[in-house]
Design goal:
The chain has 164 residues and is α/β, with parallel strands linked by helices. It has one domain (2-153). The protein has four helices and seven strands. The chain has a four-stranded mixed beta sheet with strand order 1-2-4-3, covered by helices on one side. A hairpin with a 6-residue loop joins β5 (113-114) and β6 (121-124). α3 (91-109) crosses α4. The radius of gyration is 15 Å and the shape is globular.
């Protein structure tokens, strides 16, 4: 996976990811998680992951976003994704957020979810869901990501090794 930090793309005043240690922490965590994703999401090939670019952006403009983080496809061919992060409480929290968002990327890459059917709809494992009719925490793709983020997050060898 290629990781890019798109400073100021969503929030022009962003300084959130200026810190080099934080960037390295994010890259290291994503690298570890990427090696474990194929074990969790059967059918996900590590070669596919090698060709994915993830853009990490600051989405902390409170007028626009109400979530801690979210993932969007940047290209229809699933080769680029945006992980937009609005808030986190230190290195441990951001690692867990990244684990969750990487589960969503795996869902896209394995075809479990398809969001190309309209602004307020997604297809999850063959069934269409209208987003406005189902609370965020009850969405099956969120339940799946919550369950599997813990499997990824638990793979970090030493949670304190990135902190200095």
């Amino acid at each position: 996976m290629k990781i890019e930090f798109d400073l100021g793309k969503i929030n022009p005043d962003s300084k959130k990811f200026d810190d080099q240690l934080l960037r390295e922490d994010i890259k290291n965590a994503i690298g570890i998680y990427a090696t474990k994703l194929p074990e969790i999401y059967r059918g996900l090939d590590s070669d596919v992951l090698d060709n994915v670019t993830i853009h990490i952006v600051d989405a902390s403009n409170p007028d626009d976003y109400r979530q801690e983080a979210f993932t969007k496809k940047r290209k229809l061919d699933n080769s680029e994704f945006i992980i937009a992060i609005s808030q986190f409480n230190g290195p441990t929290d951001i690692r867990e957020l990244l684990a969750h968002e990487l589960c969503h990327i795996a869902q896209f890459l394995t075809g479990m979810i398809d969001d190309s059917v309209g602004n307020d709809s997604v297809i999850w494992e063959g069934e269409r869901f209208v987003l406005s009719s189902i609370p965020h925490q009850k969405r099956p793709w969120e339940k799946d990501a919550i369950k599997n983020q813990l499997k990824l997050y638990g793979t970090l060898p030493d949670i304190n090794r990135f902190q200095k």
